[in-house]
Amino acid sequence: MGLTRRVIPCLDLKDGRVVKGVNFEGLRDAGDPVELARTYNEQGADEVVFLDIAASKNNRETMVDVIGRAADQLFLPLTVGGGIRTTKDIQEILRAGADKVSLNTAAVKTPEVISEGAKLFGNQCIVLAEDVRRNYEMRDGVTPVHLRDGRTCWYEVVIYGGSQPTGMDAISWAQDAVHRGAGEILLTSMETDGVKTGFDLEITAAISDNVDVPVIASGGVGTLEHFYDGFVFGKADACLAASVFHYGELTVRDVKEYLSSRGVPVRL
């Protein structure tokens, strides 16, 4: 199976606190981001992701403060996303202590921010955060994906926290973003987000097969086996989870020991 696989806790932030919802809605408080990040550091996480889901201007200052406090205490890569629109924003977040930034809505609306960011800061700093949903109305120019239940759909890119469909094919957009300079893809399926039935393996595998950069599977973890499935059947390079870690259902160490016992190479 080759390269070491990564396990990544994700912290959705609003007004400086960690929150968690289901299908992008119904948020509840899950704690202090710096304390949680420190816990994940001790448990052996490979990276931590902070996503500013409010992403308003006044929240940016809170976010920069949180990043600075976390970066002082973390000895692992930190990726930050949410409301990052320009190379100036990227620079501000990196300067605060982040190692990478993730771009979602801004990348769709102004794709040149990917290429400009990659040129200024390096491909390894630019992560395309791709939120997708299933669309069963097939049309020309989209990539059909065959689901395990026998149905066929295509995956549509959605922006603004899942509220706005774009008409863009997820696989084509992933390829385009990588061509522009994205060094990694953070893929979240709205169908599975927060519902704990496992990752959307079909689209994860399809994206993994069609790009030559690491793909992070996100959305839907509820059990140890879901992580294994994400790596083996989803072909992901990393698996990201939130609520199972925040509410103490699993620790990063639990996940890694389980994966190792099943032959998935991880850093213990």
- Cα-atom radius of gyration: 17 Å
Number of separate helices: 10
**SSE arrangement, N to C:** EEEHEHEHEHHEEEEHEHEHEHH
Report helical residue fraction. 25-40%
Question: Care to count the β-strands?
Answer: 13
Please indicate the percent range of residues in DSSP E strands (runs of 2 or more): 25-35%
Largest sheet geometry: 8 strands, parallel, barrel
Structural class: alpha/beta
Trace the largest sheet across and list its strands: 1-4-5-6-7-11-12-13
Terminal CA distance: 16 Å
- The low-pLDDT segments are none
Give a short summary of the structure.
36% of the residues lie in helices and 28% in strands. With 268 residues, the chain is α/β, with parallel strands linked by helices.
Fold and architecture overview:
The longest helix has 17 residues, at 57-73. This protein has an eight-stranded parallel β-barrel with strand order 1-4-5-6-7-11-12-13, surrounded by eight helices. It has ten helices and 13 strands. The chain starts with 5 loop residues before the first strand and ends in a 7-residue tail after the last helix. A hairpin with a 2-residue loop joins strand 2 and strand 3. Helix 1 (33-43) packs parallel to helix 2. With 268 residues, the protein is an alpha/beta fold. It is globular.
